[in-house]
Amino acid sequence: MMALLVRQVSRLAGHIDTAERQAPSIRSEMVQFQSHRARIRSPP
After folding, report:
1. How many CA atoms lie within 13 A of 12 on its CB side?
2. CA angle 5, 13, 25 (to 5 degrees)
3. Sign of CA dihedral 42, 11, 16, 24
4. Distance of alpha carbon 23 from alpha carbon 2, whole angstroms
5. Whether residue 35 has pLDDT greater than 80
6. Is residue 23 pLDDT above 70, yes or no?
7. Alpha helix ranges (H) inside the chain
8. List of residues 6+ apart from 40 with CB closer than 8 A
9. DSSP 1
């Protein structure tokens, strides 16, 4: 599970430099990441 989280973080970081061109895409990525992180934090 941590590997998946690391992959998502690095993918997001890779998108940061193209944020100006892909702002809507970045925003949706962030929303997906936040909800994914929330699921990880919530108890099983």
Report:
1. 15
2. 95
3. negative
4. 26
5. yes
6. no
7. 2-16, 23-41
8. 1, 5
9. -
The full length of the chain comes to 44
> What is residue 20's DSSP assignment?
T
Token pair of 24 as six digits: 């809507």
The C-alpha atoms of residue 39 and residue 7 are separated, in whole angstroms, by 16
Query: How far is residue 35's CA from residue 13's CA, in Å, rounded to a whole number?
Result: 17
Say what the pTM is.
0.31
CB atoms within 10 A of CB 5: 13
Of the candidates 24, 28, 29, 25, which has an alpha carbon nearest to the alpha carbon of residue 12?
A: 29
